[in-house]
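Hello again, I could really use a second opinion on something today. I've been puzzling over a protein and I'd love to understand its fold better. I'm sending you its amino acid sequence along with the backbone structure tokens. It would help a lot if you went through both lines with me. I've dropped the whole record in just underneath, so have a look.
***
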Amino acid sequence: MKVFMLGWEFPPFISGGLGTACYGLTKAMSQAGIEVIFVLPQSIDIPQATHVKMLTPYSSFRGDRFSHDYSGLEHIRIKTIDSPLQAYATPDQYQKQLQALIDLKRSKHRISEVHGQEVLEELLRMHGGDAPRSGHYGGDMFSEIHRYAGSAVRLALEEDFDVVHAHDWMTYPAGIAVSAVMGKPLIVHIHSTEFDRSGEHVNQGIYDIERRGLHAADRIIAVSHMTRNIVITRYGVPGEKVEVIYNGVERNARQNWNFTPTPIRSDEKIVLFLGRITMQKGPEYFLMAAKKVLEEIENVKFVMAGSGDMMQRTIEMAAEMGIGQKVLFTGFLRGEDVERVYKMADLYVMPSVSEPFGIAPLEALNHDVPVLISKQSGVSEVLTHVLKVDFWDVVEMANKIVAVLKYPPLQMTLREHGNFEVRKLRWADAAEKCGRIYEELLVQV
């Protein structure tokens, strides 16, 4: 089984849970004997081999060398190919180009690499020459998405695979295009919807892309039943088309961490918020609960690890509430820095307003950190030995934080039972379920 997988991020480029999920899932697929061709919209310089064959559409990006750990994995090859589509093509131009490729594919049982290259170069000449290039997510996002779709088609013409698997809305146009040109089943994986990110004030362009991808897919994978319900009710997708596959977590092999001291006193408790500082993640509710906790317990620091469009407002809010000296903002963390902050934490809090799943609580439990999560999260469907609260109920949130910090037996119970529970959530199970979906679709073809 060979999968043509489309993703927008992959280690070392991670801005959220999507990259972590892609990494864990593809690694488990590799171990299950499923071959993955992963298409990423930038070239990256990776010093070691990994479990995926990495294809990157753009050759202009030249990043620094990264220290991400790819040990124990197999076969990574970076292949950089320029986009065959004009960067700022209109939707009509994009459709004409796609239709030309579909017509050509139908007229030829097999397209040689050379002939496919000639066809794509002709399409470039028809629409204004070579596509401008960009680095890390530069330029207009919608133009980048369509350029990524064109590059994905070009790469697909050179590969042999059985199914197309697209992660989240930014890869859906590419998934639709590759599926149509190559005549392969399309699976779309939805990790977060526009309603999760923006509430009721959705970006219409993003919603339209999501809806088109969900309806074009042969099968949809949702990360929770909460997300499945949104897909059905908000996008009008038949329920029998949507299957829930929960995310997993990689077991932490490191038992001892060495890290430099921090300015936090040893007698201070640490309550951790780790995630994007955006409306979706509920940072303001975290601060409101923090203020109430500090009225009960003085020796507490609240660490907010992450970045996002609400960062500045959240800093200002902490100052306005008079708790600025008790709230530490670390900025975005990755790799060993994440492990260091988990090692220091007495409690992890995820107060998300709408969280399709939530990998961070699993990582916290994996590092023996007790967890408090909002009931409005997909991960609350699968975790029992954690504390749960409505995101808006800051009084109850504060009460539960105080209980964990004041009563060591409660903290110990949550830590031990939570760590045991998280062991059941394995990427191997997610990979096995994805493999079953692939097989079912191939039988139907």
User: Anything to note?
Assistant: The mean pLDDT is 80. The radius of gyration is 23 Å.
